[in-house]
Amino acid sequence: MRSTTRTTLRDVAAASGVSVTTVSFVLNNNPKQTIPIATRERVQKAARDLGYVPHGTARALREGSSRIVVLNIAIGRESNYSRSYIRGLDDELAAHQHVLLVKFGHSSAESTRQVVDAITPRAVLTFGEAYLNGDERDDGSWTGGLAATSALQINHLASRGHTNIAMALPSPGTDLRDVRLRFARESAAALDLAPLTSFTMPSPRDAGTDALQEFRASNPTVTAVAAFDDDVALRTLAAMRDLKLTAPRDLAVIGFDATEYGALATPPLTTVHTDAEAHGRLAARGALGIDISDVDLIPGRVIERATA
């Protein structure tokens, strides 16, 4: 059975018959030291055989912190937006000789502490943290921010003559659910529309059909639905088919996130697209303390298809 004790430089030195200092020189590839090739290979083989892993904390202490930035992202937030955001974050960090580590799943103080203890990262970011904490008001002046892109949905429906709009939401507890609903309601109020109502569009399909039928029975004046994301929009369209309704004649539907599945739906889903690479670059520069004034943000846009 493999020992659970961490292999140290001393273990590698004993196995390769050299000093701890020599092992350190070899494994850190110190350019100022000339180590015979045979010795170097012997040390490297011993390290591999013993499963030696450099201690991130020790390296971080030498440099002040490691060159790793951690991004926490909750399960279920994988999307076109998050992938674009991660791409921008990763590219910007790489340009400044840093590495991105993405951690999926529930983020807690304990799990964050374990990460910090293990690798001493330069920074730990949480996807959507500013909105989740209420620290970022985002009044829509931030080009491509969540308030501005949420308003695109409502504005598009209003421009098509819809004055009574509902928002279809995922299950309670979903990250950013309440934030998106708040922004949508504020957008409807700013346009002097009827107060925006909402309903949960659950999964599986039968539950979604029942939810839509119940909502329409109690809200017969609603003519359009702004969905939390494309997944919720597609569930809404499936429920409409079960109820013998068509979009946009009986109910207009607009998604959010511009997934490929929306383009393949019948009818193809109208949706909102956001290029989030610049948002990721902003986050990277903020974590590294670098000037952000030359990062250009790209406005979100509506992809017009057949459902709205």
Brief summary of the model shown:
By secondary structure, the chain is α/β, with parallel strands linked by helices.
Radius of gyration, rounded? 26 Å
Strand order of the largest sheet: 5-4-6-7
Strand elements, count: 9
Q: pLDDT under 50 segments (min length 5)?
A: none
Q: Structural class, judged by helices and strands?
A: alpha/beta
- What percentage of the residues does DSSP assign to strands (E)? 5-15%
**Average of per-residue pLDDT values:** 87
Helix residue percentage: 40-55%
Cα distance, first to last residue? 62 Å
* Total of DSSP H or I helical runs spanning 4+ residues: 13
Largest sheet: 4 strands, parallel
Gross geometry = elongated
Order of helices and strands: HHHHEHEHEHHEHEHEHEHEHE
Q: How would you portray this structure in words?
A:
- With 308 residues, the chain is α/β, with parallel strands linked by helices.
- It is 46% helix and 12% strand.
- It contains 13 helices and 9 strands.
- The chain has helices at residues 9-16, 20-27, 37-50, 56-63, 80-95, 109-119, 129-133, 146-159, 177-190, 205-218, 230-242, 260-264, 277-288, and strands at residues 68-73, 99-104, 123-126, 165-169, 197-200, 224-227, 252-254, 271-273, 301-303.
- The strands form 3 sheets. The chain has a 4-stranded parallel beta sheet, sandwiched between helices.
- Helix 5 crosses helix 13 (277-288).
- The N and C termini lie far apart (62 Å).
